[in-house]
Amino acid sequence: TTGRGGGGGSFVHGMAKSHSITPGGSTPQPQDGVASFQCIIANAPPEAVCLSNPVTVSLDDSGTAALSPAQLDGGSHDPDGDELSFSLSQASFDCSHAGDNLVTLSVEDNEGGINTCTATVIVRDDTAPVISCPESTAIACNEPSGPSITGMAFATDNCDTAPVIDFSDAIPDGGCAQECIIERTFTATDAWGNTAACSQLIEKTASGLFEDALDTDLNGDGLSDPIVLGYSRHTLTITAEGAECLLNWLPGAGGTPAPLPRAQRIVDGSDCHSGIPLSPDGRINNPLLAEVLLLTVKVRLDPQLGNTLLSNLDCAFHPVLAQFMGNNPTANSLLRLANLSLGNIMGPVPMSPLTDAVHCINEHYQLCRQEPEEAPMATPLPSFRGEPATGRPAEELIIYPNPAADVVHFRLSNFSGKPAVLRIYSPQGQLVEERRLPEIPEGPLELQMGNYRNGLYIAALYIDGYGMLRGAFVVER
User: Fold this and answer.
1) What distance in Å separates the CA atoms of residue 49 and residue 177, rounded to the nearest whole number?
2) Quick one: which of 202, 296, 302 has its CA closest to 242?
């Protein structure tokens, strides 16, 4: 503003920030004086407005998240219409920030005016772990099937260094008598409850057990001895190649117990029908034949079972059977009687009680019984198949003759030169004899039976750097 007057003055508002004055003249006609003033209007700062509700950001696969000012701004503005710039007290987050965080939004105009507001930022981890399952596998039906045997899943996570992994099993067919598929689902859960899952298929089958039973050398000649059921001209012979037929035939389909047809039939795997009665789905339709075949397999895998006294079994045997088996009958005695009946030379023997008797033993000694998951080997008693401390399946120890009277031989040529320890146990797990071998001989190892009583014995050979072989033999004089 400018004031003019002959030496006079003008009113200037007190908000004038700067001024300059040129005085007028003092003559009767003075020149006009000039006073100049600059008025500056004060800058109004911006108004910072944050969202009233918490803002949520999620961590990504790498465990980080970014925040922009626009995500917190709830309508910030400038009264003067100035251009605004925005900044945050924290714009990046990682796993350590999971949860609630207070973040300040700063708003600045182009005149330097600043204002702030504060909002809550919730950092979430909703990224699922990454899980990998072990490969599908197959195991014997009597082996433990826990992850320590069949494999454990592995998981990683963006924030949790050790996600919790558990599993559940489903058996679509409803049971695992001799063959089944277990569908195992592994689930990984991180610290924030995010989950991921994968699946593994585990096939449990008795196929390997049937192969082992048919591969047994009973007389020590180094050859597999077939299973022969029945007697004389009514027989069914199953060779080592017929293991798959056993898997198809068992368990039996019911029917009526009866002798074998008059024929000497051989099953070598080429034809599983072989003239025996089968159900439409290929299972044995003669309960006596099915039960005797199953018990024969078990006795081959576990000779101790065959020598078990019937009086020690939790089975109610029909009294009529006792007159055909003599004193102190064993499971082997019952098998001999059953085979004579299948051979059609024991007409008076009632087949239904005989079938029930064999069935009862089979019920109490399951072929596919499962051992405890991490059961320690307290005593090296034989089982259908076990796992020694090395994790390698225990192999069959070849012992002959069996039964033996004066001496037994152990065939160990595959391990000649290795140090080993041979231990002989009673069926109750008591150590009978121990022999330390600096080197396994190239020929058969001989063991004298002069101090052994009649009965069953368990042999376990521990080979340095390899594992264990085991087997059973009978002393009979």
Assistant:
1) 71
2) 296
Q: Which of 394, 373, 375, 374 is nearest to 384 (CA)?
A: 394
The string of pLDDT tens digits covering residues 331-350 is: 999 999 999 899 987 655 68
Q: Do residues 418 and 445 make contact, with C-beta atoms less than 8 angstroms apart?
A: no
Which two structure tokens, joined as six digits, stand for 86?
Answer: 């925005």
The conformation of residue 77, written as its DSSP 8-state character, comes to B
Q: Which two tokens stand for residue 305?
A: 């079972």
Q: Token pair for residue 314?
A: 């939790």
Cα-based angle 223, 226, 227 (whole degrees, multiple of 5): 145
Integer Cα distance of 406 and 32 in angstroms: 151
**Per-residue tokens: 104:** 């300040």
Q: What is the C-alpha to C-alpha distance for residues 410 and 470, in angstroms, rounded to an integer?
A: 11
64 pLDDT higher than 60: yes
Peptide bond into 401 cis (omega under 30): yes
SS3 category, 99 = strand
SS (H, E, C) 354-372: HHHHHHHHHHHCCCCCCCC
pLDDT tens digits along 83-141? 999 999 999 999 999 999 999 999 999 999 999 999 999 999 999 999 999 999 998 88
Over the stretch 284-315, which tens digit does the pLDDT of each residue have?
999 999 999 999 999 999 999 999 998 888 88
SS (H, E, C) the chain: CEEEECCCCCCCCCCCCEEEEECCCCCCCCCCEEEEEECCCCCCCCECCECCCCEEEECCCCCEEECCHHHHECCCECCCCCCEEEEECCCEEEHHHCEEEEEEEEEEECCCCEEEEEEEEEEECCCCCEEECCCCEEEECCCCCCHHHHCCCEEECCCCCCCEEEEEEECCCCCCCCEEEEEEEEEEECCCCCEEEEEEEEEEECHHHHHHHHCCCCCCCCCCCCEEEEECCEEEEECHHHHHHHHHHCCCCCCCCCCCCCEEEEECCCCCCCCCCECCCCCECCHHHHHHHHHHHHHHHCHHHHCCEHHHCCCCCCHHHHHHCCCCCEHHHHHHHHHHHHCCCCCCCCHHHHHHHHHHHHHHCCCCCCCCCCCCCCCCCCCCCCCCCCCCCCEECEEECCCECCEEEEECHHHCCCCEEEEEECCCCCEEEEEEECCCCCCCEEEECCCCCCEEEEEEEEECCCEEEEEEEEECC
The values of phi and psi at residue 281, to 5°, are: -95, 15
Number of H helices, E strands in the chain: 8, 26
Coil vs helix vs strand at 119: strand
Distance CA 323, CA 341 (A): 14
Residue 457 C-beta-side C-alpha neighbours within 13 Å: 29
